[in-house]
Amino acid sequence: MSGKQRTESFGATWWGRRWRRALESLGATYPNPRLPHGRSLARKGAVQDLVVEPGRIRAQVHGRGKAHDIVLMLPVFSDADWETAVEALAGQLRHAAALLQGELPEDVDDTLREVDLSLFPRTGELGSTCSCTSKIEPCAHAAAVHYVLASVLDADPFLLTRLRGRDREPLLAALRAVRSGSAEPERPAIDRLDPEALFTARGDLAAIAVHPHRPDGRVPEALRLLGEIRGIDRESWQQLVSAGQHARNRAWTLAEGS
């Protein structure tokens, strides 16, 4: 990403805010005014030529007639780690569907923590270098890049996966492969499932924003993105799609009060 990044708010999405909070949590360890100064630099558009690569973010910060080169560093996942991560995410239908639609589920890291992984920096993982003379890490220039990155992540959450070593398309291809059965995720036996816990919500259902729209007769988006399921023939697949369409129509009828 090239050019200047100028913003008044850093982190409009939950993942952008979480990245920003990870930086601000350092305020208890690293003294001011570095973080406020970094935030001011970010707001003034001092951060330029920001590039996200596997394992690092590169940028320049301009100020007082000087340009400082900054590199933020985050360890990438190994191939084995990514296989584990994909199986964990594919095993959660809602995670797979959200990712395939370009969204990052808010509890995605809860799922990854179960296999000892995290997309976001963990304690001691995130480092930085800067061409300035500051002896404190992060310096104000690195802090500015952190803030701007929070806004950049708002637009593209898959920059988080790139940082960890996997771009969007290879990740989604792997998810589709697991969901289609070419790599089958581990699932609990049906007789070990607790039926009373299957529909337990993690939060307040009344807080969920609902934006219904009239069914248009097409294949439900989640089913289309996930693709055909291993072990189900085409006729059964069509029956599943038809059942989904019928459920959508019925739900709309009930919503209208008919």
What does this structure look like?
With 258 residues, this protein is of the alpha+beta class. It contains ten helices and four strands; from the N terminus they run ααβββαααβααααα. The chain has helices at residues 14-24, 34-43, 79-90, 93-100, 108-113, 140-155, 158-163, 168-180, 221-226, 234-256; strands at residues 47-53, 56-63, 66-73, 127-130. The model is unreliable at 1-8 and 183-188 (pLDDT under 50). InterPro entries: Znf_SWIM. This is SWIM-type domain-containing protein. Residues 115-150 form the SWIM-type domain.
List keywords for this structure.
alpha+beta, 2 domains, four-stranded antiparallel sheet, elongated, SWIM-type domain-containing protein, Znf_SWIM, metal-binding, zinc ion binding, zinc
Q: Structural class, from helix and strand content?
A: alpha+beta
Total of helices? 10
Report the count of strand segments: 4
Rounded to the nearest angstrom, the distance between the terminal CA atoms is 51 Å
What series of H and E elements makes up the topology? HHEEEHHHEHHHHH
- Radius of gyration (CA) equals 22 Å
Write down the oligomeric state.
single chain
Strand order of the largest sheet: 1-2-3-4
